[in-house]
Amino acid sequence: MKLYKANIIFTREKDKFEIIENGYIAVENGRVVGVGTDANAFGEADEIIDYGDRLLIPAMNDMHVHAPQYRNQAIAMDLELLPWLNSYTFPEEAKYINTEYAERMYRRFVHDLWRFGTMRTVAFATVHLDSTRLLMNLFREAGMGALVGKVDMDRNAILPLHESVDDAVAKNEALIAEWNDPDGLVRPIITPRFIPSCTPAMLRACGELAQKYQLPVQSHLSENPSEIAWVQELEPESRNYGDAYDRYGLFGQTPTIMAHCVYTAGEELELMSRRNVMAAHCPTSNLNLSSGMAPIRTFLDKGIKVGLGSDISGGHDLSILRMMVYAIQVSKMYYCRDKSKHFLTLSEAFWIATKSAGSFFGKVGSFEPGYEFDALVIDDSDLNHSHYSLLHRIERFIYLGDDRHIVHRFCRGQEIPEPRIFD
Ligand code: GUN
Ligand code: FE
Predict the structure, then answer these.
(1) Is 194 among the domain residues?
(2) Dihedrals φ, ψ of 312, to 5°?
(3) Beta bridge partners of 151
(4) Which atom of ligand 1 is nearest to the CA of 223?
């Protein structure tokens, strides 16, 4: 058993921070045994690691990001979703037929997730088998957790990204056979891109794969008004966008995460709640693609699980810490229009990014007993130049801090060293 000593901050519930000044976390076999101020409360420690006056917080989880859009980060944000996909996104993703290009970009991507303290990621790759496998191997090599989706699509993209349903199934099954450890840190996730990219046959095949191999599902939901209208044309029988997924077994039949959900309301909202579908809230993407503001307060009130996603390259910022700030700010604009939807508090945003998001991976995102020890050590001494309370220190780190303040990173109990960018 190891004991880590620091100022410990986490959220058991969304409404308040747990703050333990000069506290100890006992960790054994990668999991938290307990937290408190008495070093002797957890039995004999093999080692005590003293981080002094630093902060120790749960690591970040990115619940929606497109790894092959990393080159497009922070460029090309002058269009709305559908023309943006055609003009910028599909041509970039087509390059991932080339595994040398993929390796160069994916190494930098995994490295930079590490930089910003993101230890668990739910990622879209591309339609290509080899570069998707490569991304999974890079996560494994780094020791970081990831659900990685080979993207499935067979219509309305560009020809090099179209594949037959049989090919898509064969590629998914190849990855599933290679990555079949249910306790593995890196796992496949079934990834129909969104309804407009997938024929009914492809959607059906995706639902069957998820069911047969009991795998989670990720996709996009109700992000943009033109997209939603198009889905209604393509799936005229469906009652709403969520129902269009549901008809193919892709809406909570296995654990499901849907990105955006900006326009989710009414029956779609009820279905999401009933089926326990998690929303990946991507505030920067929703701003950059002028998609809109997601009803996060409504999700919380309904008990719908929410996590935060960078959605690179719709979003421009890979830091989930800064994503908390954007989520709060967007919720304040939402509140300006609708005073019945109170804006997010800091502890709520922190809980969404850590414990709520982490629940998609199991017991991740908190320091309660039994949780996997995913953690960041923060040296905020340059931000703590006057006397600040621990509550104000975490607030200042979230609003003012950056990757330079993150001095140690842990995933499942292991300290994660800096991944190599070049081999
Ligand atoms: N909907 C379908 N594909 C995408 C994508 O790559 N990014 C975003 N933001 N939305 C999508
Ligand atoms: Fe996306």
Answers:
(1) yes
(2) -50, 130
(3) 191
(4) 10
**pLDDT tens-digit series, residues 221-241:** 999 999 999 999 999 999 999
Task: Look at ligand 1, atom 8, and give the residue with the nearest C-alpha.
Answer: 314
pLDDT tens-digit profile of 15-28? Answer: 999 999 999 999 99
Query: Both 47 and 104 in a single domain?
Result: no
- The verdict on the CB of residue 263 being under 6 Å from ligand 1 is no
Q: Are residues 39 and 88 in the same domain?
A: no
- Counting atoms of ligand 1 from 1, which one is nearest the CA of 89? 6
Residue among 194, 227, 281, 310 whose CB has most ligand 1 atoms within 8 A, to mutate: 194
Close Cβ partners of 175 (under 8 Å, ≥ 6 residues apart): 129, 132, 133, 136, 150, 188
The answer on 198 and 254 residing in a single domain is yes
For the segment 89-133, what is each residue's pLDDT rounded down to a tens digit? Answer: 999 999 999 999 999 999 999 999 999 999 999 999 999 999 999
Query: Residue 262 corresponds to which amino acid?
Result: V
Measured CA to CA, the distance from residue 335 to residue 75 in angstroms comes to 30
Residue-range definition of the domain harbouring residue 171: 60-361
Query: Which residues fall within 8 angstroms of residue 214, CB to CB, at 6 or more apart?
Result: 254
**Which residue do the tokens 């020890």 mark?**
373
| Three-state secondary structure call for residue 393 | helix
Number of domains in the chain: 2
85 lines ligand 1 (CB under 6 A): yes
Closest CA to 210 of 251, 162, 271, 269: 251
Asked if residue 92 has its Cβ within 6 Å of ligand 1, the reply is no
Q: Are strands 217-221 and 256-260 parallel, antiparallel or unpaired?
A: parallel
pLDDT digits (tens, 9 = 90+) for 126-153: 999 999 999 999 999 999 999 999 999 9
Same domain, yes or no: 118 and 6: no
Based on the domain organization, do 230 and 369 belong to the same domain? no
The residue contributing the CA closest to ligand 1 atom 9 is 314
Q: Which atom of ligand 1 is nearest to the CA of 69?
A: 6
Task: For residue 318, give the DSSP letter.
Answer: -
Question: Tokens in use for 353?
Answer: 């990014």
Any ligand 1 atom below 6 A from CB of 66: yes
